[in-house]
Amino acid sequence: MPASKKKQLLLETALSLFMKEGFLAVGIDRILAESGVAKMTLYKHFPTKQALILETLEYRDHQFFQSLQQYADTFSIENGDRLKAIFNWHLDWVNSASYRGCAFVGAAVAFPESTEKAHQLAAKHKQKVLTYIAASLPLQNGNSTANEIMLMLEGAIVLSQIHANAEPMKQAIEWLKNKIT
């Protein structure tokens, strides 16, 4: 297997394990056992577990936005259709069998100090989500509306994980429909 494919396999395995069991609970040996990649290969790509965590978060950020934008950007900003699409994309996500919550919320919890790089990547990701929401608002709405929408979306993501169902996201979608109509 080429080196780039092994690196990809390590990232995918690490992300899956981090989401199932947590960033701090999963060790390098577990990632190696699950991926079948040699320890030397892992350390060639990621000199430390921290480096693997950071690159896994960057990988997830790229995955997340690529999927979200590919779906939501097909909807018009007018009448709030793109915002509704953003929430519907999240509803599909929380309904998926692989849903284990938000990697960035998990990273911020596991690395609570704002000076930690994983925490900073989580904050950067959430700022990107807020910026995307603000850019998706119909013209008559402003930044305070983007902040409210972000709070509702984030709350629904977390509560959907806590309650292991999509009801909070469905309620957030109803709230959004009332907010933008």
Automatic annotation (TrEMBL):
Residue ranges: DNA binding: 27-46
User: Where exactly are the transmembrane stretches of this chain?
Assistant: none
Domain HTH tetR-type span(s) in chain numbering: 4-64
Q: Which domain of life does this protein belong to? A: Bacteria
InterPro entries, per this entry? Homeodomain-like_sf, HTH_TetR, Tet_transcr_reg_TetR-rel_C_sf
Q: What is the designated name of this protein?
A: TetR/AcrR family transcriptional regulator
Which keywords has UniProt assigned to this entry? DNA-binding, Transcription, Transcription regulation
